Amino acid sequence: MLAPMEKITDSSFRYICHKYGADLTFTEQIRFETLIKKTKSALMRIKLYDDTPTMIQIMGKDEEKLDIFLKEFTPEKGFQGFNLNLGCPSQSYVKQGIGSAMIKRPTKVKRMVDLIKNYGYDVNVKLRLGVNKTEKREKVYLKLIEKDDADFFIVHARYRSESYERKADWSVFPECVNTGKAIVANGDIQTKIDVEKMKEIGCIGVMIGRAAMNNPLIFGQLKEFKVPQLETVKKEYIELCKSQNIICSEEVLKLLK
Ligand SMILES: Cc1cc2nc3c(=O)[nH]c(=O)nc-3n(C[C@H](O)[C@H](O)[C@H](O)COP(=O)(O)O)c2cc1C
Fold first, then answer.
1. How far does residue 64's CA lie from ligand 1's centre (Å)?
2. Please, which residues bridge with residue 188 across strands?
3. CA distance 120 to 105
4. Which of 5, 159, 160 has most ligand 1 atoms within 8 Å of CB, for mutation?
5. Which of 100, 128, 129, 200 has its CA 20 to 30 A from that of 147?
6. Residue ranges of the domains in the chain?
7. Distance from the CA of 38 to the center of ligand 1, in angstroms?
8. How far is the CA of 186 from the centre of ligand 1 (A)?
9. pLDDT, tens only, 179-236
10. Best CATH choice for the domain 23-207 from the list 3.40.50.720, 3.40.50.11540, 3.50.50.60, 3.20.20.70
């Protein structure tokens, strides 16, 4: 799976990653409290232009507003379901009680998951290990996985305040799998050996973020598909953005040098 990445995983980037091997992609995070205001910029974040399998990633805490959003939501082709973001490390979001601050609120998350399911949509959850070391030690992530009925849980094996410089803690994956729930591993996964390791542990899949940023062909390479040169893919990305009338991500253009 291609990880959601703000300013990177626009619809063209998602299309390319899927074309060259990613089974599933995710939109960049957006609050459903913002989506119900229906501004053009908010709606553009969840617009799907083609049939690339895509989960729409949403975050927020106001259940009434989630209900309003779902009532008005019309799925487009490519839409596979919703992803609830319980991983966002932003300090301002955590202060408002959303993003990774919700990992320790399994009952509330359960209500939100059930609400989405009641509308007939698939739903999965992306979480970190807690807001800080203490929450990780208390295993708040396990309590959430045990209690909630999402289709699968994507575990980014870091707590909120942990920087990318520290290696993701893969030792948590076996206990997550032992809950009996479907677990997708995330954090520092890059090679075939990494993927095999996650399979051995019993994860149903892996999610790849930064390793795909400057190499969207990584999914095909891991699956040993024949893939084109990166230069060809960059041209394809620019053409796609033009055809969808969206502005190419400067970050992606820089990365695909
Ligand atoms: C530039 C950037 C933007 C990100 N934006 C999001 C986001 O919108 N939603 C989300 O759930 N995670 C976001 N993440 C986290 C990634 O989805 C992923 O969990 C994290 O990078 C760890 O995976 P990796 O080691 O494969 O990169 C972002 C990460 C990066 C580097």
1. 27
2. none
3. 23
4. 5
5. 200
6. 23-207
7. 25
8. 9
9. 999 999 999 999 999 999 999 999 999 999 999 998 999 999 999 999 999 999 999 9
10. 3.20.20.70
Render pLDDT for 143-160 as a digit per residue (tens, 0 to 9).
999 999 999 999 999 999
Q: How far is the CA of 55 from the centre of ligand 1 (A)?
A: 15
d(CA 227, CA 33): 40
Print burial letters for 131-143: b (CB count within 10 Å at least 16), e (below 16).
beeebbeebbbbe
CA triplet 124, 168, 4: central angle to 5 degrees? 40
Query: Which ligand 1 atom is nearest residue 207's CA?
Result: 26
From 6, 141, 173, 214, the mutation candidate for ligand 1 (largest count of ligand atoms within 8 A of CB) is 6
